Amino acid sequence: MLLASRGAEFLYRDAKRTLVAHAAVLADCNGDAYSDLMRSLRYSTGVVCLSFATLGMQFGCNELVGGSDVSVDDANATGTPSTGADADGAHSALPTATLNCAYTPADPGVADAKQLPSTLKWQGYAPGSDDVVTVNASDFFDCNGSKGFDVVVFEMAKFYCGSCEQDAATLEGRLAAWRAKGYGVAWVTTLVTGPDGAGPPTVAGAKEWRDKHNFKTVHVVADPGYQLLPSGKSSFGTPSFVVVDPRTQTVVKWLEGLGAQDSVVEATAQKNAATH
Question: Which end of the chain is more exposed for a tag (fewer CB within 10 A), N or C?
Fold first, then answer.
């Protein structure tokens, strides 16, 4: 694991955005030395669900979260929908449905048995669209199944991560197999680095990842703030997964590395599909 130590100076302009600057990175994912590589990370109050799995971390680069050093590694292991423009002028392209319940999480957080905060959101791309949209965590709340969601998966991935590439290569096929069983699986890939594998993620990078893997049914967004990192966790491997039950927006399992996520996804989908 390559560690990057850096100092950060925060400038707060409002309650919603934080600019982190003055970061020096000592090494990249391949071990090539860099000196005084400065980068800015733009934070947002929004968060979207990703996935993580419980396997050892062997390779990767450190990333900064909220002023503390956080290690990001290649794990290398085998509501109401928002349909109008938000404050940033972007639109979320998701199914609309009439729900007979409101999403008011009693115990919000990003951890097993917690409900995702209703304010979490990212910028990126919805399936089948080249328009930049805002993807809200609350968009996937489906208390009665009327939107067709039986499980939601948020996958944290990065460029130059072999395990992330491996998962992306088979993702559309697995989603098709679940649809054939009658399961409604919503998948959001959240990128935590830019196309260079080290810099902050961008919306342009999200489109590059989507097009590279020919995604047709997957949301792809940029997450420069590591918004789905559980409180107190200082390192994580990629890919990582957050599997969510859309009936209550409860985190079923926060997983790190490949291997266990699909069984959790299928079990959750099967349980909810049976209640349609």
Answer: C
